[in-house]
Amino acid sequence: MAISRRSFLKGSGLAAASSLVAPALLGNPFVRTAFADTIGDRYFLSIFLDGGNDGFNTVIPVNDGGATLRAAYDAARATGTDGINIGPAALAATLIGTDPGSGAQLALHPALTGLKQLYDLGKVAVIQGCGYPRPNLSHEESRVAFQAGTPPGLGTGTGWLGRYLAANYGGSDIPGVCLRSEVAGEFRQTATSVLAARRLRYLRFPYDGDYGDDVARKRDAFNALYQGAAAQALPIAEYLGTSGVATLLATESYAGLHDLYQADRAAFDGAYDALDQGLAYNLREAAKVIHGIVSGVPNVHARLMQCATGGYDTHSDQGSTTPDGHHWQLLAEVGDSLKLFYDDCADMGVADKIVVIVWSEFGRRVPQNDNGTDHGTQYPMFVLGGAVQGGVYGNHPNINESALSDDGNTSYSQGAADPFRSTDMRDVYGTILKHWLGMPHGTILSNVLTLDGGDPAERWTQENFDLGFLV
Amino acid sequence: MGNANSILTEGETRHLMRRAGFGAPPKEIAKLVKRGLTRGELVDKLLKFKAKPLKVGKKDGIDEVYDRWLELMLKTRTPLLEKLVLFWHDHFATANAKVQSTELMARQNALLRAMAKGNLRQFLKSINRDPAMLDFLDTLRNRPKTPNENYARELMELFTLGVVDEAGQPNYAQEDIVQIARAFTGWRLDDDGNPVFREDRHDYNADYPERGPKVIFTTYGGFGPGGVDFGAAGEGAAEIDRVIDALLSHRDSEGQSTVGRRMTRRLFEYFAWDAPSTALVDALLTMSGFSSTWDIGALVKTILTHDAFYETAAPLHAGGTKKSVKWPIDYVVGTLRLLKVVPKRRKYAGLALEDSDSLRGHLDDMGQRLFDPPSVFGWDWEAAWISSATLLARFRFMRDLAAARGKGKQGFHPEKLMSMDLQSPAQILDAASALLGLTDQLSPDERTALIDYLTDGGAVSALNLNDLDTRGRKLHGLFALLLQSPAHQLH
Q1: DSSP per-residue letters across A136-171
Q2: Contact A143, A185 (CB under 8 A)
Q3: Closest Cα to residue B189, out of B99, B324, B285, B281?
Q4: Sheet containing A105-108: which strands, arranged edge to edge?
Q5: CA-wise closest residue to B245 among B91, B135, B119, B84
Q6: What is the residue extent of each domain of chain A?
Q7: How many angstroms separate the CA atoms of B44 and B48, rounded?
Q8: Is the model's pLDDT at A22 over the cut of 60?
Q9: Mapped to the 3 state alphabet, what secondary structure does B388-439 carry?
Q10: Which residue is closest to B385 within chain A, CA to CA?
Q11: Residue A199 φ/ψ, nearest 5 degrees
Q12: H-helix or E-strand containing A310?
């Protein structure tokens, strides 16, 4: 994409156009070419569990296998009042595969029945031990690391998906939408436009309700003001300008997707209402975008999406095996919402065209505190979709007390023979970039993900973008 | 080169009133300029305030307290106090979403007011014991056998040192968090919500010998391998004060005051612009004497009288190279004050303009809810305020304001603010933009676009604003565009 946002907008004559209905820009054949080279007819969705999900109570060893995983789990997490231990009996309905490192039988948290159904269909990859070297226990620092795809302190303010977008899209494209009020860190870059809207119906430009015959003039002036800002040398002014222009264009295409979905997909629309969960409502917004693209709505091309759901900072009152427990409710929301969303996608005929990643900024401490857990390190991610090769990938971290750091956390390891070897986040991202988003292996290494230097047993010095969950 | 003794120009006066307050109308600016004040004199005037707590009714929920704070900001004569309280609310970010107590949140707000320009050492020691904070960062849940490190971590990461120093070197180790968390065991709230120290709930060395002595900063902080033993002078309630003393004595990898540098940077970025050089931070820190006195007011005065502060006043089209994105609260309160629009308190909706959502609702959509920052990190500033969602929220609010044509104080009445006898589009634009302090900020291209709007692309050469249809259509429309314009998002 040699053409810059600025020159393209100027060259397009958009500044002089006054058509409200169909800005020609986004339908430009040049823009469509960009899609053909990359994601094609696919979709990608990133779901952030905000606060640090307790991975050790999300994917749980049911027995010891060839190691002592269950014994170590029982030693660290109490039963009874204030205990957060989840026993084998409670896990009987949510068994998944075995831990590749130890052979221990694994199970999902009993609240994750929706996800378990998808797992049984072979559509869910459970990727254990995800992390990065020298893990940071700060929410902010660690979230930024996962979003940037670089360990703390090494990032440049861009996100791993952002660098992918920057390599493939230009300023006049809108290849992504974050279904929240801000652009998510993993999408951050300055080469192209990513929308942010908690609800698509809010993407309507607020013209004065009176004097409707003056609207076209207002639009021209507004557009000229923001085009002017977009041409400024000062980055913050340019960013404000490009955001304003992209926002105007988006209001002229995206807001109608809400009504369209309600009209065309009433049954699923009602199913999200019936589930009545925050994450489900966010996923419904993603479904509206997909439905818009599937239906051929002009100028709607945002195939990369993001949404978030919070409450995972379970320092206290985490709960255990009863459905009124805090963590139980959080995970039930995740599993049930994902199941409904997957069904919706399947009904739209795109189940095989969408991949979803579910991640958090870190896991939690192995030993519980009073009745919760403090900030931790490696944790399991989920990747799901019709094209995903389901199963368990990556090893469970070593949770034996003797293996834990002084503060009770598991260690990051890349030791080739280590049965508890961690899965570096960059191998997960690289596998997605290579096998789903169409980026060549070498380009990933040169443009998006940078190998660490240092000890190969403790740093990410050798990539593996063929983890196997996408082929 | 200017300094505290430089006489303020008109542009500098407008800038100072905007950044250290919520802006001032043209008449007030003219009056101030006429007095020939120096930077130092006007800043002293702005810093002259006595903080009183918000008036809180017995039945108030958090929304009512929020409305009371908004009302105060809309009419206060000491806006710099409010600007500082907003800064501290972001810095010591505490969310009612977790605390769930209007009373404790209001008490914290009173503390932020009382300490806003006070002594940082005393401020931090008070925050240590602030009931809302004790709850928010889990000090109440921090027990000897099951320590909760939440407050210990954020105290260093966010409230004082920062994770890394100006040179990118770490300021503390995980072990420091562990030990500091020990100091904060034993604190509870009594039935009146006041902090009490319970000796029997405290983590003593004698009870937990395996955790070693209460020593911090053996690796980082410039204290040498011996570090700081905060338990040596006697274990108990005073440990948390000694932790603050240690933090304020912390030296970074370059031997400079870590907290002094970080707070100088934060306050400068808040009042002026993002990412100042270390050299500028150090110059401000030295001039203010902040790292020995910890006098916040003196640091604020140093910043507001320094040349670097005035750099964002220069228009971008005339060589300006610095701008900062207005916080939503600033964008809303500043505009309402300049245009003399007074929102009304409505049943259920709270404080609102006519035919519009509550101010709280608008601000939510713009990404800022007072008393409920998104996390302990507070709000992300600058570019993070800007997205298609938050921009639309900004545009919606300004549309509602410009379209509030009804009678009464909560309507927008340009005829009371400028002459309706102006006919020339350029003069109308000058008068309207002057009310917002934007006249010098608009580039020639922006002026052309707005005059094109007024004249329907040159179809008319003069406007009759005394004609209500023309006024309602074009003058209110012009204000909507000015209020939504990029220039009005920045300061």
Answers
A1: ---HHHHHHHHHHTS-TT---S--HHHHHHHHH--T
A2: yes
A3: B99
A4: A59-61, A105-108, A95-98
A5: B119
A6: 38-205+252-448
A7: 6
A8: no
A9: HHHHHHHHHHHHHHHCCCCCCCCCCCHHHCCCCCCCCHHHHHHHHHHHCCCH
A10: A182
A11: -135, 130
A12: strand A304-310
In B220-326, at which residue ranges do the beta strands (DSSP E only) sit? 228-229
Given a cut of 70, whether residue A9 has pLDDT beyond it is: no
Tell if the CB–CB gap between A196 and B389 is shorter than 8 Å: yes
Vertex A387: Cα angle to A383 and A389 (nearest 5): 65
β-strand pairing of A59-61 with B195-197:
unpaired
ipTM above 0.90, yes or no: yes
A195 to chain B: which residues are within 8 Å by CB?
Answer: 387-389
CB contact (8 A) between residue B486 and residue A182: no
Q: What is the pTM of this model?
A: 0.75
Fold classification of A38-205+252-448 (topology level)? Alkaline Phosphatase, subunit A (3.40.720)
Q: Is A69 helix (H, G, I), strand (E, B) or coil?
A: helix
Token readout for A31 is: 């823009």
Which residues of A fall within a CB distance of 8 Å from B148? 315-316, 369-370, 374
The answer for B 128-167 residues in CB contact with A (under 8 A) is 138, 141, 143, 146-150, 153, 157, 163-164
Confidence of residue A14 (pLDDT cuts 50, 70, 90): very low
Residues B246-256, mean pLDDT to the nearest whole number = 98
Helix residue ranges per DSSP H, A348-451: 425-435, 441-443
pLDDT of B273: 97
Amino acid at B412: F
pLDDT classification of A7: cutoffs 50, 70, 90: very low
**Six-digit token string for B16:** 């100072």
The pLDDT confidence band at residue A20, using thresholds 50, 70 and 90, is: very low
